[in-house]
Amino acid sequence: MALQKRALRKPEDTVALMLRLQALNDPSISEYIAKTRSKYGKHVRPIEEVRRMVDEAMGDKKLTDVLYEMRESGY
User: Fold this and answer.
1) Rounded to an integer, what distance in angstroms lies between the CA atom of residue 18 and that of residue 9?
2) Cβ 3 vs Cβ 54: under 8 Å
3) At 65, phi and psi to the nearest 5?
4) Are 1 and 58 in contact (CB under 8 A)?
5) For residue 66, is it left (φ>0), alpha (ψ between -120 and 50) or beta?
6) How far apart are the first and last CA of the chain?
7) Burial class of residue 47 in the structure, from the number of CB atoms within 10 Å of its CB (0-12 exposed, 13-18 middle, 19+ buried)
8) Nearest to residue 4, comparing CAs of 65, 62, 72?
9) What pLDDT is stored for residue 3 in this prediction?
10) 25 DSSP assignment
11) What's the predicted TM-score (pTM) here?
């Protein structure tokens, strides 16, 4: 699976990104993130390691193909 980042091409993409960033400034969101990190922090892995693990597990398949297989199998 090739690592590719999707470019912001549409104004809606920019708006969605701005809303996500704005939500991160919300005190209730920040508090929830802090609680989640304190509860599950020991299980956190670096994103590079997670990507490597997913790439190894998927092999030559694409994420879309795996999702369709899961949908068809009733996972």
Assistant:
1) 14
2) no
3) -60, -45
4) yes
5) alpha
6) 22
7) exposed
8) 62
9) 44
10) T
11) 0.36
Residue written as token pair 């068809």 = 72
Q: For each of the chain's 75 residues, which pLDDT tens digit applies?
A: 444 455 545 556 777 788 778 777 888 888 888 888 888 877 778 888 988 888 888 888 888 888 888 889 886
Q: Residue 24 contacts by C-beta under 8 Å, 6 or more apart in sequence?
A: 30
What is the rounded distance in angstroms from the CA atom of residue 55 to the CA atom of residue 19?
30
Residue 16 one-letter amino acid: A
**Assigned token pair, 64:** 């879309």
* DSSP-H helix ranges across the chain: 11-24, 27-40, 47-58, 63-73
Q: Angle CA(73)–CA(5)–CA(53) in degrees, nearest 5?
A: 50
